[in-house]
Design goal:
about 0% strand, 3-stranded antiparallel sheet, elongated, mainly alpha
């Protein structure tokens, strides 16, 4: 057992050039800077101290070192090596022997009390290692190291390299440098650099035949480098490697050895991370870290296997940067390296695509059971954040966005689910960025195909991956701040991607992209109408004779929903986009693009009509009005459209009989010819209409009312220009109807009652949709209901043609959850029933059911009163009671129950009593008419030309 105590005493008696920082090492006492200014004197002192404690001659000391270091091939040269050399060599041999003995006999890693080493002794030992490395390893490196890096590696000018001595020094330091407790801060960084440089010096000398060494010894030296890589920080290894490689004086063989070592370490696990951190510490300001590392990593000369290994490392490094915010500053290094590797060859592209599919495969085809978690929420957030950084943080460094094209429907579906929950703003932002980046980088043709696939929900669009139908995002009951992704057993979840896409476009600054998508959807609508008509005829005619009546009804409902759902979704998307203010600006700035779309629709209109049951004149009218309006506001020349539109417009003019359509066609033709007025010089009708239009669009209520009055007069006069612009007037009227000024919207009601005489169905259909729209405000819907009622009064008995629209919109309002709205709906329904008494017959059961529901479960008393008024007004409008004999008995029983019930409200009893009074009066009148009629005798022979008796059922006179 070696006496270690003497070595601690020896260390205390030695003198080192190292200045120790007392702040770093705490309370321990350390040697100050040596008072000796001459290194040779210091070395002489230390050698004398060595000889006091180590009683071995130099030759025996060297022989003992060779045996202990297993350098048997050098035993024959022990005498020669042990001869008295210079002072630095003697100091190096004694120092190597001492540090090896201490390293072999002291357990620095153990925490046992008998093994503990004083901090003072430990720091003295570190200082000794540093000092010995300066005189042993530092002064025996390959000569090229001193020529290329004189600041980093230096020695006296008269000193020559001894590779044999260097081999002994390397063997000695191998026993010491891998003791981790000695690595306090960067205390051993210098010796490790010199140690690695010494190994490479021997390898370079062997390569250049300057030094001969057995193959096994070369393998042993290479194994020492591997031990440094595995045991010490990898960033330190790369730092030292780059410091040595940045030497232009090195021989080609030396550069080759260092380059091979760099690649081996770079391709091994953790190599890319180590390279990044190493170069981040020692990079020069004039070189970008991203460019420096990407230049080293993305080399086409590397093997395919090595490139794939680097890609896998970079992807793992990027994930670590996302998980650790402190590493996020290095994300750009990984992105640029990954992009350059991706662009090298097709194998790398395939590898990245496979990685991306592997990350998202769990959402496409989960392997878990129903009602179990598909993916941890934190992992899901990190995945989306990783994709965001890989594709969206830079247009130069990121991966190409076409990789996301196949997953666009998947990402849209995820956004559709996520946006319905709170605390997901950051996740929504990442998903939006991915979708917008993917769409923004598409060319015109690909963008059209993608939007068409999204709008039509096509699943056959070039490897279109979709979110699994049964995946559901809902609240996590264990953590309110998170969601959970489960595979539900409830079945597939239906969704529509267009609303989610519209939300993303409206919240972004990609205005040109929004405009292009708007044009694509606009062009898609006529084509979709044509396809829907053909599909509808095909599906409805198949196997209908094999269905039962109830099955037939359900099938028809499904077919209608399938036929019109896509068209409705596109219309809603267009409506939402066109109301977006930036979109209006884009339309004004790019009016020619929209005009070209309308021109295509107009050109294809005759073909479209071949597939429709009847010519859609309103569609043609709207198209012509839009073309004319855009041409009038356009600031660019429209000469290009003259040749395109002239022939289709002339053909339409000859084949259409409606005068208003012809007028619109003439208007467009005159504009195409460069004339803005219809009579070449002056058109008073147009001027009057434009004047009224400007007044209506003014902000002042009194001006709006004046404009409405002028429009009413023009419509009553059947002014051709005004009638041809009826759709524009309807749009203005709907906008003006929202005015808070009662004087304005009441006059607007008069405008609608005037408009209904020239376009009955369009007005009622439009107002019916506005009335039942839950998204509109309550006040606006109440005003719309007043307009519908006024129109019904204006039309009088002629409104029977539109009874379905009128009755359905008000009966729909009777089901509203808003009590005030139900009150208005029942009141309007009551007055409408008075007008359409006979036509209510087929809706009677539904009407009676609505009234019964309101009376039994309604909580708003005024609505109940209005419901009873419906029955009273219905009786008031009846003329001949025989025509309503099946309706009278249920009405009578209900009114009688309400009139005599003590639990009923007083107003309800009054309304019910009035209804019974009206019924009694009409019955009395009926009896008087019967008794007043002249009685005639009729002789009849039974069996000859018998006619069936009228089935009076429960006549009103038989009621008790």
């Amino acid at each position: 057992m070696t006496n270690i105590t003497k070595y601690w005493l020896l260390l205390e008696s030695m003198q080192f050039a190292t200045i120790n920082d007392t702040k770093e090492h705490g309370h321990a006492q350390y040697l100050k800077e040596s008072s000796l200014t001459n290194d040779m004197q210091r070395l002489s002192h230390n050698v004398q101290e060595f000889r006091k404690y180590i009683k071995l001659p130099t030759k025996d000391l060297v022989r003992q070192l060779l045996e202990d270091l297993n350098l048997k091939h050098m035993m024959g040269e022990a005498v020669q090596l042990g001869e008295e050399g210079d002072l630095a060599t003697l100091y190096s041999f004694y120092g190597i022997f001492m540090i090896k003995e201490i390293a072999d006999n002291v357990n620095f890693i153990s925490n046992a009390k008998e093994d503990l080493v004083a901090e003072r002794h430990k720091c003295l030992f570190i200082a000794c290692i540093q000092d010995i490395a300066e005189f042993s390893l530092q002064q025996h490196l390959h000569p090229n190291f001193y020529k290329g890096r004189p600041i980093l590696f230096s020695r006296p000018h008269d000193k020559k390299t001894s590779f044999k001595n260097l081999e002994i020094y390397i063997g000695g330091f191998t026993h010491v440098l891998f003791i981790k407790p000695l690595h306090i801060g960067k205390s051993l960084d210098g010796p490790i650099l010199q140690y690695m440089a010494g190994i490479f010096s021997i390898l370079m000398a062997c390569e250049d035949k300057e030094y001969v060494m057995a193959d096994q010894e070369i393998i042993n030296k290479t194994a020492c480098l591997q031990r440094v890589w595995l045991s010490l920080p990898k960033s330190l290894y790369f730092r030292n490697l780059m410091l040595m490689k940045n030497n232009k004086i090195l021989s080609p063989s030396g550069q080759k050895i260092l380059q091979r070592q760099l690649l081996i370490r770079l391709w091994s696990p953790g190599g890319f991370n180590a390279l990044v951190f190493a170069l981040a510490e020692c990079k020069k300001e004039e070189h970008s870290l991203e460019e420096l590392i990407s230049g080293l990593v993305a080399q086409p000369a590397y093997s395919v296997k090595a490139q794939k290994s680097l890609i896998a490392q970079i992807l793992n490094f990027s994930r670590a940067c996302v998980d650790n915010q402190e590493l996020l500053q290095y994300m750009g290094v990984g992105l640029l390296s990954l992009r350059r590797l991706y662009d090298l060859n097709d194998e790398n592209k395939t590898f990245v695509e496979a990685w991306l599919q592997g990350q998202l495969h769990i959402l496409i085809q989960p392997d878990c059971e129903k009602d179990f978690t598909v993916m941890d929420w934190c992992n899901f957030q990190h995945l989306i954040s990783l994709l965001f950084h890989l594709f969206c943080t830079s247009s130069v460094e990121c991966l190409p966005s076409n990789l996301l094209t196949s997953y666009l429907n998947l990402i849209l579906n995820i956004f559709y689910h996520v946006q319905q929950h709170n605390n997901t703003q950051l996740l929504q932002g990442h998903l939006k960025a991915l979708i917008l980046k993917c769409l923004h980088n598409q060319n015109a043709e690909d963008l059209h195909n993608i939007i068409e696939a999204v709008a039509l929900q096509r699943t056959d669009f070039k490897e279109w991956f979709a979110l699994h139908d049964c995946i559901c995002f809902d609240e996590n009951p264990l953590n309110s701040q998170e969601l959970r992704i489960i595979l539900t057993s409830e079945g597939p979840h239906l969704w529509d991607p267009l609303p989610a896409l519209v939300v993303i476009l409206k919240s972004s600054t990609f205005n040109l992209l929004s405009f292009n998508i708007f044009l694509i959807l606009f062009r898609l609508l006529p084509k979709l109408i044509e396809e829907d008509e053909e599909e509808k005829k095909k599906t409805i005619s198949e196997n209908m004779e094999l269905l039962q009546p109830e099955d037939l009804q359900q099938k028809i409902l499904r077919e209608v929903n399938t036929t019109f759902a896509r068209r409705l979704h596109i219309i809603k998307a267009l409506e939402s986009l066109v109301q977006h203010q930036p979109m209006k600006c884009m339309i004004n700035e790019n009016s020619n693009e929209l005009l070209r779309c309308l021109a295509d629709i107009l050109i294809n209109f005759p073909e479209l009509n071949k597939h429709l049951s009847e010519i859609n004149e309103s569609t043609l009218m709207i198209t012509l009005i839009l073309i004319r309006e855009i041409m009038q506001i356009s600031t660019t020349r429209t000469d290009d459209f003259h040749a395109v539109l002239s022939k289709p417009l002339h053909n339409l003019y000859e084949n259409i009989d409606q005068q208003s359509l012809k007028y619109q066609i003439l208007s467009v033709l005159h504009l195409l010819q460069g004339s803005n007025d219809l009579n070449v010089r002056y058109d008073p009708s147009k001027d009057q209409f434009e004047e009224a239009r400007n007044l209506v669009e003014a902000k002042e209520p009194y001006l709006q009312v004046e404009g409405i009055e002028k429009l009413i007069k023009l419509i009553n006069c059947r002014d051709t220009y005004t009638v041809s612009n009826a759709h524009a007037i309807v749009a203005m009227a709907l906008n003006t109807l929202k005015s808070p000024e009662s004087y304005t919207f009441l006059n607007c009601v008069r405008l609608f009652t005037t408009l209904v005489h020239i376009m009955e169905f369009e007005i009622l259909d439009l107002l019916g949709d506005e009335y039942v729209a839950d998204s509109s405000t309550l006040d606006y819907r109440l005003v719309v209901g007043e307009v519908i009622l006024k129109i019904g009064r204006e039309l009088g008995p002629l409104c029977y043609k539109y009874k379905a629209i009128l009755l359905n919109c008000f009966m729909n309002g009777c089901r509203s959850q808003l009590g005030e709205f139900r009150l208005s709906a029942f009141s309007n329904l009551a007055q409408l029933c008075r007008i359409l008494t006979y036509q209510v017959y087929q809706y009677f059961q539904e009407l009676l059911h609505l009234i019964d529901c309101e009376l039994t479960s309604g909580k708003y008393l005024p609505a109940k009163r209005a419901a009873v008024m419906v029955l009273s007004d219905l009786l008031e409008g009846m003329d001949n009671l025989f025509d309503y004999e099946e309706m009278l008995l249920p009405i009578y029983r209900l009114l009688k129950c309400l009139a005599y019930s003590k639990q009923s409200d007083e107003q309800i009893r009054i309304h019910a009593t009035n209804g019974l009074k009206n019924l009694s009066e009409k019955c009395t009148k009926l009896v008087e008419d019967i008794t007043a009629s002249r009685l005639e005798k009729e002789i009849k022979i039974l069996g000859v030309k018998d006619s069936s008796k009228r089935d009076l059922k429960n006549h009103i006179l038989e009621m008790n």
